[in-house]
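Field notebook, page 270. I keep forgetting to write these up properly, so this time I am using the form the group agreed on. The chain and the ligand, S-adenosylmethionine, are recorded exactly as supplied. Prediction of the bound pose follows.
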Amino acid sequence: MQALSDDTFRRVSEIMYEAIGLSFSQSKKPLISSRLASRIHKIGLPSFEAYVDLLEDHNQAAEFQMAVDLLTTNETYFFREPKHYELLEQDLLRRKDRGPLAVWSAASSFGDEAYSTAMLLSDMQRKGQLGPDWSILGTDISHRVLLSAAEGIYPQDRLRHVPQEQMHRYCLQGEGPATGQVMMQESLRAHVRFGQLNLTKSFEGLGPFDVIFLRNVLIYFDTPTKIAVVDRVLATLRPGGLFFMGTAEGRVPCKTRLEALIPGAYRKAA
Ligand SMILES: C[S@@+](CC[C@H](N)C(=O)[O-])C[C@H]1O[C@@H](n2cnc3c(N)ncnc32)[C@H](O)[C@@H]1O
């Protein structure tokens, strides 16, 4: 197969930017080329150009989803950035109100962040520190990760930071062919739901939320897209609510007023 030409690379970049805000610099071309080449080979197409034609065909939504999965990373694990969960717990302990609590894990990937939060909130409910009316919404662009998140089944390794006590309380250990896998208990799953959402398009009607995780997804976007996404997401956060980003992502120059708490954690101005 011929190499990925600059023109075709530009077409892929434009399609992905328009659809989901992915922004690829020229330096990403070898990576994009190798990721798409194996897919093209697998489905028996003759060229990158033929594959891009497929991506432009609106009847090929499944292949488009496949390309999204190839060009993004879904890396995640339970209790990633543990200080964020500690801060959330401390903040909830200070709340006088034990009323409903709504959390959004935006770009949830396989749901590790949503279920980690569910473990924390469920523990707090057991200790009488939180009322029973709490819910977590996990959203992502990838249909594949959402299906898996809704199943709530994980390789044991992704729960390496989950304390033993919570493992026993909230996880069913797989046996036989499922050895090495764990499944989230129904008591947690009842509070967590997942749905598809593209952060770069409007999502009116969502929220309001008390806590939002928007971690490790902004890396894909250029600065104007980052600002637009962060402001749109923050519009769904209640004043005084907590907002978490990946600690390596830096501060986004959004228009919404935020108070910096610890790296990657902010409070929306009241
Ligand atoms: C690295 S994962 C982050 C998972 C989790 N938040 C964490 O920090 O562990 C990034 C996720 O962003 C999703 N994503 C990329 N572009 C998106 C978009 N435009 N809208 C919604 N999700 C998107 C990807 O599908 C991927 O699952």
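OBSERVATIONS:
- Residues 20-21, 72-76, 80, 107, 109, 113, 140-142, 145, 198-200, 215-217, 220, 246 surround S-adenosylmethionine (CB under 6 Å).
- The domain at 82-268 is CATH 3.40.50.150 (Rossmann fold).
FOLLOW-UP: compare against the apo run.
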